[in-house]
Amino acid sequence: MITDRIVKIVFGIISYLLVTIILLIVGFLILSGLDDINLEFLTSFPRNSMTEGGIWPAILGTAYFLSIALLFSVPVGILAAVYLSEYSKENRLQRLVLTANNILAGIPSVVFGMFGLSLFSITFGFGTSIIAGGLTLGIMSLPYVISNTHESLVAVPKSYREASMALGANKAETTFMIVIPASSSRILTGVIIAIGRIIGETAPLLFTGAAFYITRNPSGPFEPAMALPTHIFVLSAIYPDNVTPQLEGSISVLLIIVVALFMSVAIRRRRESRKMEG
Amino acid sequence: MSRKRIDLFSRVLVTVAALLTMVILFGIFFFLISDGVKVFGKISLKDFFLSTRWYPTYEDAEFGILALLSGTLAVTGLTLLISIPLGFISAIFLAEFSSRKTHDFLKYVFELTAGIPSVVLGSFGLKYISRWLMELFPMKVWTGLNILNASLMLSVLAMPYFVTLIEDALKAVPVDQKEASLALGANMTSTLFRVLIPQARSGILNAIILGTNRIVGETMVVLMIAGGATMIPQSIFDPVRPLTAAIAGEMGEVELASTHYFALFMIGVVLLMISLIFTVTAMRLKRGMRR
Questions:
Q1: Distance, CA of A267 to CA of B256 (rounded, Å)
Q2: Which of A102, A213, B210, B226 has the greatest count of CB atoms below 10 A from its CB?
Q3: What is the mean pLDDT of residues B239-251?
Q4: Per residue in B129-179, pLDDT tens?
Q5: Distance CA B82, CA B115 (A)
Q6: Are B268 and A233 in contact (CB < 8 Å)?
Q7: Which of B12, B84, B97, B120 is most worth mutating to test chain A (most A CB atoms within 10 A of its CB)?
Q8: What DSSP string describes B14-36?
Q9: Which residue from A minimizes the CA distance to B222?
């Protein structure tokens, strides 16, 4: 029993040490940028080759890219998940779709970027634009939306479907009026997780949609836009020390958004599991 | 539309959406391979894979990816050496030795860690870790941007995968196995090493494969802090240029439809094949586990 005690203490110390290091890095990065964030920083354009001014176009650009990505991946992902959980039997086709989805989820983001460049920017002629970058991110997030939604739908008790069918509803009515509403909260949690996964993606946007430095807002979806992660990359890799406040502020803003997303997921999950326990 | 029609229409709609995932996967392979193979019109298969000389912008350009491949291997190997043991220890602590409250807190932090954008860790390594490495090993280090720096930051990204997946694998072992061992008088530690870990080994292998896949494909960290030198590394303090860093670093300036462009797409094909093999192997293992 002494061995158990020792293993528990040693493994516990190591685990807490790791978590402490991680929290220190995140906390340090958020705090060191906090004094650079103010209303002016958040709402003004970068000036003087990015050594002054704020990150408004990067915040707006990230919102544009995410909207297009979700406009694609949420409807398509939910429908595909409905196929997997409601319409398909355990057959070859279902297994093929599941396999394809797993493979997609494992493909490196830089490869999605090349695909987006080749298909959207060149073949479709979208060039470097919000729509090309957004669709690339949309395809990247699709496997996450599908697996998360699939899990949520499978968790709906069979009795819901049977009760609906017994009242004379057909498959479509049962699925879209009973099953999906019953799991909507979990589906939303899955979408938030997918947003957390793609909000910091940098490499795919560098090829397909990112502008390094713009002085006016893009006038439509076929123009490039700045984004928070690519802005952080440009500031830290290309410009030397004279953009430190801009860089620290940008990192802080992005991390605060990510932490907020994950906190909301944790809170929603706790609420859901409490509901399940009754 | 009548009810029946709507029912039929939705059946078609969801099937099309599901098939779309397969179309996208096929499209990714098609677009990368069709551009990638064009490099072999100019460069021989042997020169591409077995030459260490990657000089895409020289007048007599050379496109050998062996040095890039060795960079990927070095960074991935060192990251695994750091993050697997640590991830293993945390997973064991979470699965068997922690109270529910501790468990939930640690797990939350690890989940959050998986969400840290890699560009942020790249920036942190660039500004701070590189300086600390220079101060810590002044005799050995000639650049703070090297394999060790990249592996440290990649470990932060990879560890949560190992922790979560290994913990799941340990928890998937039937509880009666554990109880039988404890009832026979074995303590928790020997139950863990003699019963739980051997029973969970295919799940643990699955976790290691999926985590390795993440590390190989990670781009921003290695682009920003692995150093970018095209050379076969001799020590962990050498700078390298992994496959993903070459793509992300050069794609912006490359001329469309040039040999360099096709060579970068062929590197993309190599990455695609690596992730395909890893994912399919992991799926096979998982299916084997269920039986």
A1: 47
A2: B226
A3: 94
A4: 999 998 888 877 778 899 999 999 999 999 999 999 999 999 989 888 888
A5: 20
A6: no
A7: B120
A8: HHHHHHHHHHHHHHHHHHHHHHH
A9: A203
Write the residue in B4, B122, B219 that is nearest to A110 by C-beta: B219
Contact A113 B248 (CB under 8 A): yes
Smallest Cα–Cα separation from A170: which of B3, B269, B140, B104?
B3
CB of A82 within 8 A of CB of A175? yes
User: Out of B18, B93, B111, whose CB is closest to A11?
Assistant: B93
pTM for this entry: 0.93
Contact B244, B218 (CB under 8 A): yes
Contact between B48 and B64 under an 8 Å Cβ cutoff? The reply is: yes
Which amino acid type is present at position A216?
Answer: R
Assess contact for A259 and A89: CB atoms under 8 A: no
Contact list in B for residue A119 (CB cut-off 8 A) is 27, 31
User: What type of residue is B86?
Assistant: L
Residue found by looking up tokens 């987006």 in the block: A116
CATH number of this structure's domain B46-290, picked from the four choices 3.40.50.920, 3.20.20.70, 1.10.3720.10, 3.40.50.300:
1.10.3720.10
φ/ψ of A166, rounded to 5, equals -65, -25
Q: Please give the CATH number for the structural domain made up of A35-277.
A: 1.10.3720.10
Cα dihedral A229, A234, A235, A240 in deg (nearest 10): 150
Shortest CA gap A80–chain B (Å): 4
8 A C-beta contact, residue A236 and residue B221: no
pLDDT band at B255 (very low <50, low <70, confident <90, very high): confident
Largest Cα–Cα distance in chain B? 80
Query: CA A54 to CA A39: how far, in whole Å?
Result: 9
Residue A12 and residue A33: Cα distance in Å, rounded?
32
Task: Name the band, by pLDDT with cuts 50, 70 and 90, for residue A209.
Answer: confident
Is ipTM beyond 0.90? yes
Q: Considering only CA atoms, which of B142, B145, B151 is closest in space to residue B128? A: B145
Burial class (CB in 10 A: 0-12, 13-18, 19+), A266: middle
A104/B24 CB distance under 8 A: yes
Determine the residue type at B59. Answer: E
